[in-house]
Amino acid sequence: MTQTRKRGPRGPYHSGREAQRAILDAARAVFAEHGFRGGVLRDVAVRAGVSAANIIHHFGSKEALLTALLAERDMGGSLMLRTSPAGFIAELRDLVRRNAADPDMIRLFSTLAAEATAPDHPAHEFFRERYATVTQETTTAVETAREEGVLPSGPPADQIAAGLIAVMDGLQTQWLLDPGFDMVAAFDAHLTAIGAD
Amino acid sequence: MTQTRKRGPRGPYHSGREAQRAILDAARAVFAEHGFRGGVLRDVAVRAGVSAANIIHHFGSKEALLTALLAERDMGGSLMLRTSPAGFIAELRDLVRRNAADPDMIRLFSTLAAEATAPDHPAHEFFRERYATVTQETTTAVETAREEGVLPSGPPADQIAAGLIAVMDGLQTQWLLDPGFDMVAAFDAHLTAIGAD
């Protein structure tokens, strides 16, 4: 396993798992800054302290590296609404607060989601399914919240759910462009405006 | 002016203006699909039917080509809220309808805005200023709409403005990922939810 002992900024790695961890961390940083299509595998390699061939050895391809990154716990945890019927609005607020503590992850997600709107992007299906799932879950949560009187009745629940997801995504762009922008306060204001209790 | 007569898919061009138009159209398509950083000047050249050197001749650099593209009328028109105190809500609805008719422009804007959140991106300042201006204008429009009773009072106007801009941006991502998603209906539902009259 010569390649896992290759020296670099973070090397040497004593196990394949260590090397993979370093490659994933490097890929996250490079893709967050340049996007997947703009991100160069060589830059990932340099940052991780391995060779490009070593990355292919561990992950198979640049696309497979992206898939591994997207499947990671952090990414999923931050994207997914942890909806609980008892505290939907509280969960939403908590999600935005967690996101506000993790600008690098949000930058990665925003950039990838935008470029993955292209049908031929390797993460296109991932994001389509992710949004479909999150929208479905949020719609159910809106319906429950209405039954409990936590959200007022009004337009169809799926449209309200789409709007909630949209405002979270859109506020992230404004916050990434201007770190002084208080997206937590703006999201709370939005909840007040739609009559959340 | 040999270069403006160079033959290609769209050539020959009989004037520098024709060639510039073809290059801008090609750049819009390539950057919309791959982002600015992922977009390759050579692909712009092939699509426009000119040489990469010809693009440099006309625009100076890849960054300057992006700047020229962003400064274009269509781009500005679609980004900017054409606020008029008399019909703010109508203007918002109209803006979303216009955007829904122009997926390519919206894809370009979404992708560039996301990657331009990186401080070293050549369009970073452009988007920072754009959002600052649009937020300022929308805040004023929200204040006027409240005075006229078209929007209810509530949280600070600048936060409501940020939410309106965010929901428009976020719905675009959902619509680009799933062309069957009705972002016009979702936006109308959002306006109803915040009590717009």
From TrEMBL, chains A, B:
UniProt keyword annotation of Calcium present: no
UniProt domain HTH tetR-type: residue ranges: 17-77
MF (Gene Ontology): DNA-binding transcription factor activity; transcription cis-regulatory region binding
Keyword field: DNA-binding, Repressor, Transcription, Transcription regulation
Keyword check for DNA-binding: yes
Superkingdom to which the source organism belongs: Bacteria
Residues of the DNA-binding region: 40-59
UniProt-listed Pfam families: TetR_C_6 (PF13977), TetR_N (PF00440)
The protein's name: DNA-binding transcriptional regulator, AcrR family
Originating species: Actinoplanes derwentensis
Organism classification: Bacteria, Bacillati, Actinomycetota, Actinomycetes, Micromonosporales
